[in-house]
Amino acid sequence: MSADSNKLNRWAIALVALVIVMTLQLLRAYGVFVINNMIWWHDWPTAIAIIGSVMLVPLLIPLAVRLLGLSRALLLAAALLALARLGMQLVVSPRDISPLLNWLGMGLALSSWGLLLLWLRQTQGRLQAAYHFVVGLVLGLALDTALFGAYLTWDYIWQTGPLPLLTAIVVSTAMIFVAWQIQKPALDKPQEAPLRSQWPMLVLPPVVMGYVLYWQNVSMINAALTVTTAVSTAMLLVINAGVLVAVNRYGGAESSWWRLILALAGALLTMWLLPIASGVVVVLLVIAGQLSAALLLHEGLVGRASEVQFAFAWRTALMTILGSLMLVGLGMLYYVRVRGNISSVGDVPLLAGIALLVLMLAISLQWGTSQRWRLAPLLPLAGLVVPLLLILTLPTIATIEPTDTLRVISYNTHYSLGMDGFASVERIAQVIEEENADIVLLQEMSRGRINSGSTDMAEWLSQRLGMNYVYAPFGDYQQGVVTLSRVPIGDHYYGALPMEYAGEQRRYLLTEIPMPDGNPLRVINAHLTVAWLGAEDRMPQFDVLLDLWNDEPRTLIAGDFNTYPGNDDIEAVLAAGLVSAQDTIGDPQENTVAADFPTTRYDWILVSPEIELSDFVIPDTTASDHRPVAVTITVP
What we know:
Blueprint: H1 3-41, H2 44-55, H3 60-68, H4 70-90, H5 97-124, H6 126-150, H7 162-181, E1 191-192, H8 204-215, H9 218-225, H10 229-250, H11 257-273, H12 280-302, E2 309-310, H13 314-339, H14 350-364, H15 378-382, H16 385-392, E3 405-412, H17 425-434, E4 439-446, H18 457-465, E5 468-473, E6 479-485, E7 492-496, E8 507-514, E9 520-527, H19 535-549, E10 555-560, H20 568-575, E11 579-580, H21 581-585, E12 603-607, E13 612-617, E14 629-634
Parallel strand pairs: 3-4, 9-10
Antiparallel strand pairs: 1-2, 3-14, 4-6, 5-6, 7-8, 8-9, 10-12, 11-12, 13-14
């Protein structure tokens, strides 16, 4: 292979990597706009129609190729994608312009995938095209993870200020520049494989979604392993490097059905097991998932036939659209799973993780083409400078000495999404700061869920506020309740709340806060089942909370109880002897939901009778769909 061909291949890999970086950012934002804002502000038919229209954008591929030629069509798609992404950084307006730019960007990202595959197949052939696309994808994952980790998982797509803007400008400019470098005016009419050899390409969009939800989800790994973003980022970058070593072994090899089927089975198994695994099994499953996904993508992109024929790119466009529908379908299946309480964390035996990893390694140990980029595995390792900087700049968590008087706030954060649809953990932090809280009980906390942009809210708020935290996951690791404290945290544990219907598993989190006399204050953080169910569905959950209290002094129970004054369930709790802070020293008529125009009251702070209460407030804020409740307690 000539030096010019090698140089061209490097530019092509770089373009794939940058398109993947754009795609992952837009896909995380897409989850916010679609799952929350679009369905929140519009009806389901309207949301489905808009989502569907995005998936149809690749229909423009054949027209663009015919009018402009393949190379110029690819340059145009990449440039428009970069500009749409940059526009989102400049114009933050979740109700109008930003969603339009996001949906346009997703359509352009899907179109860029198809055009890139056409270009790679024509310039390099079927086998090398698959190899270079997979290498570019893994490098894109590594770059995105480094950027994501550098901003401590609150994606800079949601952030204002010079540094996030500069990052967006650099990445967008780089993509336009690289797309320009691979221009070959002679490639005016692509050679496209027959339809029967294109079907395996359907795996591309779902594989990308799998990386976002599971295999490259920094925040989820933080929660599952109880580690920091620095550790998870470093681990993923090393795994990316290892996957590239494996890709260099089988990359460019002819595909086979048995490898395709085994890789698909491995990918699906890891997606099922990862949300419920724990400890070292999580690491094994992430490695197995990344290997199976890369192998699956390679097998799919190689195709099933060697012949090519003249076409106007309609087959590639069709496969891209169908694959995009599978992407949405995978996202919906994930949503149904977590909402349906199908599984719970910590159920996967170590043997299952080892067996799956060994299987993926076994089918990866084969030789492909000799035309490999041997330095590719080193590039993700260069990203290790990010976790190193995170460790060196880690803020000090300075706890205060326990006192008898503490300020407590309980807040349903709605995954950091305000009533304007904007994802901002900074606004949540500011609400907490304004109350000068010592103990913070938070519900609807995301640690990797795509409807919050995959942010790890627990670690981000902990570092931003300088507070220690403990976490109780719900149906999987990506959502739960968090308790933060300026006072040292003692023993803590969580448990399941009984579910009377097939909804997302709810849990309580009990934290012991040492007091000056050595006896702890017991703080129970809970998020009860949905409000539209009756009191009889929540009463078994309240019974668990009452059993935890057990008439013991120095107990505080707070959270989003999804019930309002006068309901039989909360009245039974108050009759048992717990004291409502709002009903005792606040305005019982003041509501907390919805934050912009409160009409009901779901959020409560209850204490055992001997605790003194003062200065109860409900801050007027729209940083979430709930308003928080705050009170000062004095523990005798």
